[in-house]
Amino acid sequence: MVADEPTTPRPFERRHLVVLGAITFVAIVSRLFRLGDWSFWVDEAHTFRDVTSSWSSFWDSGVSRYPLGYVTLRGLLDLGLLRGTTEGWLRLPFAFFGILSVPTLALFGRAVVGRRAALLAALLLALSPWHIYWSQNARGYSMAVFFALLSAFAGFRAVSVGSSRLALLAVGLSVVSGLTHPSGFLLLGTLGTLVLWRVWVDGELRRAWQRPQILIPAGLLMLGVLAWLLPAVVTAATKKPGFSSLHLAQTLAWFGSPAFLVAAGAGAVAAVGLAARRVAAFLLAWVVVPFGALFTCSVVMKVSAQYGVVLLPGMCLSAGFLCVSIAEGVSFGGRAAVLLRLAAPLAICMHYVSDDFLYYFSRYGERPRWRDGAVAAQLDAGNRRILLLTTNTPSLNYYMDRGAFWRDPLPEVDVVGIADWQFRDHGGVDVWFDLVRHQAAGEEREVYVVLTEPELAESDRDRAFDRLLRRHGHQIARFPAWTGPKDMTVLVYHLPPLDAERSR
Prior knowledge:
Largest sheet: 5 strands, mixed
Number of domains: 2
Structural class: alpha/beta
Radius of gyration: 26 Å
Shape: elongated
Strand order of the largest sheet: 2-1-3-7-4
Number of strands: 7
Number of helices: 24
């Protein structure tokens, strides 16, 4: 095993900086390209609501528990640094953090896995469709990833040199990440594992109690875990119970890609035998431990891969370490050796590039095309007033009447959600359907329905609304889109006035 003495990382030479500049350029282009073209999905529409509502409404909302992303976006709007609240402008700050994470991973990662592996890790992060998606999202995930990345490297340096100040900085950065999105608190588990590893390496537990640079951060970490993670898990398990381990594995395989996941896991394991002990502990703590926590939580609550995106930089480091280790282990020459050295990184990068192409030119940013659906209804209605039924009220409010989030809707449009509680409160789907149509007739409104079938199925499990819609409605537009493995095609229907239907 490689010796475990702290070493000063070799600086990047000019050729490394040229490569890093090229990788950073790829990150800039991939995160800004078509940034405003994708429709807002439901959570992005909620972001618009939360950053444009009153401060009192914001602090009374659930997102005030992790406010930093919203406060940052709101501050930029108030200062006039963002020129509007369209999709591209609201996503721009998070694209910035996504871009910044790429060179940061390389600059700090060279102290962990070396220069070549760090550059490869940065390239994997730059090309990652998972990271591109969240960088082009008006949500705080890319911001949480950036501060989680800083927290991890501060923790690595802290246990390498035994610095309590760096350990406290690592804890503070993980809290900043967690206050941007709760998944950032997963880094507390990573830091706690690193501290426990340092205590174990010292040989005697008694010695750890005599060293404040170990005792103080360890105590703070444990208190942080208890104060932030456990109550959050209990609350989430209460609100979203259910077994979701299979869903977590499926979404992780989709967003991460099997080849990359295998390389990341194998790299962390291979580091035990090939790298310094502190490097192996760091990669295992960043990759394996938090995902173990996520899978444990998925036994009793709903957990998706999006909560693990803060661990993506560590996975890129681990995969980069494995690829470089394989390349350095090839001792023979010739074309076969070149192919063997390049096989693993090429397999991952080619998969990523193909997915990125589909993301931009076929999958519409992995989002349903709600904007197109809203426009289709408005064009068909002309100057007539609209009653719009939808499975996604926030997004359709954003596109039909942005002020509907914090004031009375415009008289020209009324957006009503299709939900199972609506059916129950009004005595069933048939009764509610008739009430809505009579309401529209009384107010002289045209009834339009904008939905996706998977979202409708969540509220309309016996397909009663679907049957009524197909019997009485006319499909006027269809906007194909796939988000991950789901067909999220947006369908637009028009329900003719009751008098016109009776006269047929």
